[in-house]
Specification:
Elements lengths: L1 H14 L22 E2 L3 E6 L2 E7 L8 E9 L3 E10 L9 E6 L2 E7 H4 L8 E6 L4 E10 L9 E11 L4 H15 L7 H5 L1
Antiparallel strand pairs: 1-4, 2-3, 3-10, 4-9, 5-8, 5-10, 6-7, 6-9
Length: 195
């Protein structure tokens, strides 16, 4: 009985989310710098509450994006989370804009038209679930639109990768453990029980 219980406990532990998550370097900017990221000019790391954020300012040219990016590895089922905030420092018709994308899929978007002249978005959380394993390009950018004055801003941070999908091995062990519980052991005779 002890073997059955131990096997089942091990299988349940493995099946409860032990799959290894993909990798992101310095996703929370906790190093206080941009290590692990490729960046243009006009990007800095600033304190944000009890953590840090990348602060991107437009202004390197009309319709030219200030950007950060990183190629990350994700496994199928990995969940990338993070947050962003758009800070508009311009007015229409100069529709400055900012984004966060992964492999071209938009995770966050802000612009003057959406949030209004000189207005900001709330801090907005987002998530992305990888359907396949592989390399993904995570990027963020902000640009002035139509001119290169009154530069708008984008803050991003808190990028983490988690995986709650059990590995096939863990599923197999769970099945084995449950099946093992279903098979009765050798019945003991009355004399064996009294000893």
């Amino acid at each position: 009985m002890l073997i059955k219980t131990t096997l089942l406990a091990a299988a349940l532990t493995l099946a409860s989310g032990s799959a290894f998550a993909g990798t992101i370097t310095n996703g929370d900017f906790g190093t206080g710098n941009l290590s692990g990221w490729s960046a243009t000019s006009n990007v800095s790391v600033i304190p944000q509450g009890s953590s840090y954020a990348a602060d991107l300012y437009a202004g390197i040219g009309a319709n030219v994006y200030t950007t950060i990016s990183q190629i990350i590895t994700l496994n199928a089922g990995d969940i990338l989370t993070g947050w962003a905030q758009w800070l508009g420092h311009d007015y229409m018709p100069y529709n400055d804009n900012g984004f966060v994308k992964i492999n071209g899929t938009s995770l966050f978007y802000g612009d003057i038209a959406t949030f209004g002249n000189y207005n900001s978005s709330p801090v907005t959380s987002f998530s992305f679930t990888a359907l396949t394993s592989g390399a993904y390009t995570l990027s963020a950018g902000v640009a002035n639109s139509g001119d290169n004055v009154n530069s708008s801003e984008l803050k991003v941070g808190g990028f983490t990768v988690t995986n709650n999908v059990p590995e096939p091995t863990a599923i197999a062990l769970l099945g084995l453990g449950l099946a093992f519980f279903g098979f009765p052991g050798k019945k003991k005779s009355a004399t064996e029980l009294s000893i």
